[in-house]
Specification:
The protein is mainly β. The protein is built from no helices and eight strands. It has a five-stranded mixed β-sheet, with no helix packed on it. It has a three-stranded antiparallel β-sheet with strand order 2-6-5, with no helix packed on it. Strand 3 and strand 4 form a beta hairpin.
Length: 93
């Protein structure tokens, strides 16, 4: 099993993306959850055309693990896609 982990600098923008071919996913939202799965931020997905969707989150400024989650409905079924996000402090010499 492979787990998708993204590392970003804390306090910067994190972009979630989803590619869909075929049927339209609606509604589709992107969420940023804390490690204890408390909602930090939620945005409606923006379509950039041809089945590509994105959502932008501002990561909190503290180091922590987060969960990036996409939730969409296709016909009557709800689908969830999750990934781990690690916010790290910027190291300065």
């Amino acid at each position: 099993m492979q787990i998708n982990v993204i590392e970003k600098v804390a306090g910067t923008t994190f972009m979630q993306t989803l590619v869909n071919s075929g049927a339209t996913v609606s509604p589709l939202s992107f969420q940023l959850l804390s490690g204890s799965e408390t909602l930090v931020n939620s945005v409606a997905a923006t379509s950039s055309g041809n089945g590509f969707y994105y959502g932008l989150h501002l990561l909190p400024s503290s180091e922590a693990w987060y969960i990036g989650q996409a939730i969409g409905t296709l016909n009557t079924n709800t689908y969830t896609l999750r990934q781990l996000v690690r916010a790290r402090a910027l190291e300065v010499d």
